[in-house]
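Write out the bound-state structure for aspartic acid.
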Amino acid sequence: MAAKQENPKKIIIFNTGGTIAMEVDESTDSVRPGEKQPLHTIEPMLSRYAAFEMIDLFNMPSPHVTPADMLALARQINEYATRPDTSGFVVTHGTDTLEETAYFLDLTIATNKPVVITGAMRSSNELGADGPVNLIQSVRVASSSESKGRGALVVFNDEIHAAKYVTKTHTSNVATFQSPQVGPVGTITKKTVSYSQPPAVRTQPFEIHAASRNVPLIKMVTGMDPAWFLWLLQQKIDGLVVEAFGAGNVPPAILPIFEQLTVQGVPIVMVSRCYNGYVQDLYGYEGGGKQLKKLGIIFCNGLNGQKARIKLIVALEAGVSETQLAELF
Ligand code: ASP
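---
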């Protein structure tokens, strides 16, 4: 338990919605936002751990969240971060798109102060509700000096994950957030917050003023009909993210479309449908990685499709040039 101090620095908690802010309505057997924000009832318990201020920014289910909302949140954090009485941040968020918001913040927050994102798999009035404990653990992580300079962190089920690698892996289990390939960066016990990995080197945060670039994410499937892509060629898109097969291969029928998009100057970023391993220019057959590399498709490792899309939106908004884009991924 943190000792009380005179005029202590505060953790700012931004509530944005999600199951952590919802309740089960027995009469309709549905989970939805209640009349009151239930997180305020935890405030007396939270105050035993740190000084904080809780701000209700939005109250949205996370499938409603857009990159523009993520930018609004990043701006709030960047503004509050300049205040000397603020020591860190916790964001409560729906779990469905939590990883996208976390990564967006990772790319755009201009502060070394800790930024932690959390949520819940069980709503506030469900048996074994995980929201209160996740929020308390998040405040503890945000209060730790070891959490500084680590970009955005996701805290769930006593684990700390880096925004870049974490992903929602289960529809209902409280241990849903995992970082395939790298594991958690730290853990939380009753008495400690400890890190097992050093902070990743962060590049300069991107400074952006909008988040409205149109970047679809398309998953490759067997026997894919190129007609869908022909339709795509007629749309105004700013970039494309493709979840390719295995080590980075696509059905051959899709190649002419990629060619046309590259001629139109649309950047194409490729990740794998597999959540472990790397995309590489390995295969020399029609639609294989070798051909895709030659076409100028950007191979992206370490990010899943939804996060590669967030990065491409942010990079395009920041005015990153075509040649710099390849290096960035
Ligand atoms: N559908 C909810 C949301 O993302 C799930 C959650 O919060 O866990 O808002």
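---
The domain at 10-195 is CATH 3.40.50.1170 (Rossmann fold).
The mean pLDDT is 94.
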